[in-house]
Amino acid sequence: MKRGLIIGAVLAALWIGAWGCSKAKEDSKGVEKSGALPPVAVEATPVQARDLIEGIEVVGSLTPRFEARLKAEYSGIVTDVYVTEWVRVKKGTPLAKLDTREIEAVVQKAQAAVELGKANLLQAEVGGNRAERELTRAQNLKESGLITQQLFEDVKTEKAASAARIAAAKAQVLAAEKDMNQAQTRMSKAVIKSPMDGVVAS
User: Fold this and answer.
1) Contact 193/83 with Cβ under 8 angstroms?
2) pTM confidence score
C-alpha cells in the first residue's frame, strides 16, 4: 500500500513538472510571438505639487538699439552725480556736474573786465565831448585870428586822438563781453545733460 502511494506521488510530481515546463514554453512562445519586451525594474517617485521655474541660460551681450556715450566738452573733476544705474531719464535731465570753481572765477574776472571796459568807454566819451568843444572853440578863435595855426592843429590832433580812444574803449568792451559769454557758456556746459529719453546703463 505504501509502495503504491509513493509511486502515485512520484507520477503526480512528474506530471506537474512536465505540465509546468510545457506552460513555461508556451508563455515564452507567446512573448516571442507578441514582440513584447520582458519586464524591467523601475524606480517610482511619489508625485508632489511644486512651482515650475523655466529659464534659458544664454551666454552673450545685449546691446540697445540707440545708445549715447556722454563726454564733457571741458575737462574737470565730477563733483555731483544726479542719477544711478538703470534709472529712466528724459531728454535734458541733468546727469552729472563738473567742478565749476575755476570757471566761476573766470566768469567773475570777465564780468569785471566788462565793467572796466565800460568805465573806460565812458571816460573816453567824456574826453571826446571835451575835445569836440575845444575844436569848435579853436575854429572860432582861428577865424578871428586869435590863435596860431599850430595851436589849431594841436586841438584837431587831440580830437582825433579822443575818437581813437573811444573806438579802443568800445573794442575793449566788446572783447570783454565775448570773454564773459564764453565763460558763461563753459559754465553752462559744466552740467552734463541727457541728450535723449532712455535708461542710464552705467
Assistant:
1) no
2) 0.57
